Amino acid sequence: MTDVYPILQHPDPRLSQPGQPVEEVNDEIRAIIKKMFATHYAQSNCAALAATQLGVPLRITVIDFSHEKNEPLCLINPEIIERSTDMLNEFEGCMSVGGRINERVKRHQCIRVRALNEAGESFEIEASDFLSRCIQHEIDHLDGILFIDHLSGLKRKMVDRKFARRTQ
Ligand code: NI
Asked: What is the pLDDT along the chain (168 residues), one digit of tens a residue?
């Protein structure tokens, strides 16, 4: 059995703490990434995970929403360097926000992202549609932001009420 991280659940305060940039991509970081992917692949319906939702306060995200789970993408210290003015407004959920809460969130349709790979090399990717939304959701995690933080006052209150009921 591969070692996996527990996934922190809202309202865990660690989910609101921004991650620190990775200073050097070394074997210790690569071991964290390996365990992050193991955690990701152990879930049944997971597109991506951020280190900050696994109790690891670093700016790393692992992404794979391919059917066969064989298209891993790891972004270390990801930064959005270009954004389209075209926006999307699709339903999102989150492994850290249980209770089948899915709400629409506005995201840029296309983004260009700069990050480091597992060898510590800088690279850029252009992402659109689902991948674009996914990366924006993950970078939010690295900034201590959950998708429910984007909801308008009334919607957010409804979500908060659901959580209040569940934790009673
Ligand atoms: Ni999430």
From this structure: 579 999 999 999 999 999 999 999 999 999 999 999 999 999 998 999 999 999 999 999 999 999 999 999 999 999 999 999 999 999 999 999 987 899 999 999 999 999 999 999 999 999 999 999 999 999 999 999 999 999 999 999 999 998 888 765
Distance 11 CA to ligand 1 centre (A): 13
- Tell me how far the alpha carbon of residue 24 lies from the centroid of ligand 1, in angstroms: 25
Ligand 1 centroid–CA 28 distance in Å is 24
Count Cβ atoms within 10 A of the Cβ of residue 27 and give its class: 0-12 exposed, 13-18 middle, 19 or more buried: exposed
| Fold topology of 13-166 | Peptide Deformylase (3.90.45)
- Rounded to the nearest angstrom, the distance between the alpha carbon of 5 and the centre of ligand 1 is 15
Sequence-ordered list of residues with C-beta below 8 angstroms from that of 120, at least 6 positions apart, any chain = 24, 25, 76
For residue 126, indicate whether it is catalytic: no
Quote the CA–CA distance of 93 and 150 in Å, as a whole number.
Answer: 12
Q: Which of 28, 79, 126, 138 is catalytic?
A: 138
